TrEMBL record:
Source taxon at top rank: Bacteria
InterPro entries: DUF4367 (IPR025377), MucB/RseB_N (IPR033434), Sporulation_related (IPR052944)
Residue span, MucB/RseB N-terminal domain: 116-203
Stretches assigned to coiled coil: none
Residues covered by the DUF4367 domain: 243-339
Organism: Aerophobetes bacterium
Residue ranges crossing the lipid bilayer per the database entry: none
Name listed for the protein in its UniProt record: DUF4367 domain-containing protein
Pfam short name (any one): DUF4367
Amino acid sequence: MDLRFHRTILFKLFVFAFSILGFVSATWGIEPQEILSRSLEAQFELDLEGIKKTEFHTHQKDYILTARFIRLGPDFSYLLYLSPSKIKGRMILDDGTSRKDYIPLKKKLRIYPSLNSSLMQQRRRENLELLLTNYTISRQPDEFILGRPSYVIFFIPRYPGNPRLNIWVDKKTYLPLRKERYNAEGKMIASSSFVPFNLRKEFFRKSAYQSARRILGEERAPAFPLFYTLQEIGRIVKFRLKVPEYLPPGYILQGASLVDEGMAVKLTYTDGLGVICFFQRPRANIKMRNFQRLRFGSLEGKIRMGEDEKTLVWNKSGMTFVLMSDTSKEELRRIAESVK
């Protein structure tokens, strides 16, 4: 199992959580339902082009992802990664029907549901319900981002040990212009912002399609549904599916999926912002660097402590299990102990 790849997937889940957050509290003369409705649809209604920068602050080093972003209305978006070199050239093209993710190093084209599909719209609504249940929404004094007046919103966890998020929302378009994510210890672990961006209508889709032409004809990864139910995936795999009996307050199962070419199962849990990923597969040799030994119950595992996320790996009864999250070490231990 490639832990680096799955840490990337965990960041994607964080980014997905970021993408739905663009509303403010009921105070200061504006209803939260109105702001919520506008912010949810803002990214799908605008014609814009810009450079987006995402910074990750990890225990070992900081690194920056830079990407060119184009959005044209509800059914077209194009993302081209410019740096760092190991992901330069990666393209994500969303035509309103599907989202095509081309990874140059692997020469693979992965197909996912469009972010504007009915499935993903439902997922955003479910996430928002969880956010309103598990987080306090606090509006701060307005600020200027890229010269534009912006709402400033803090998402404060109701339960200790969960992450926190700050967002800046453009007051005219309701587009989130900047986001900052903090771990349970209060350290900023990720931030994203537009460097410049332009609202315009003269950009033609044909140009973006031409620049993404080389993704056509590439070998496609196996097409699995985005999420299965536990019952569905239990009938597919050839091993007995395990689930944790304990989860931190506010977390629920988002869904189950197949990874590693169908050899492993990933269960994804969320409280609307935080994400816990639980992997299981027939026993495999998973290599880790900079790990510590961790005992829980009668078992011993390897844990890698990071400010951005923590990874716990252990073996039991011919199976390998992996927990990945940005929750506390003790919460990770309690989750692992509850897997029977």
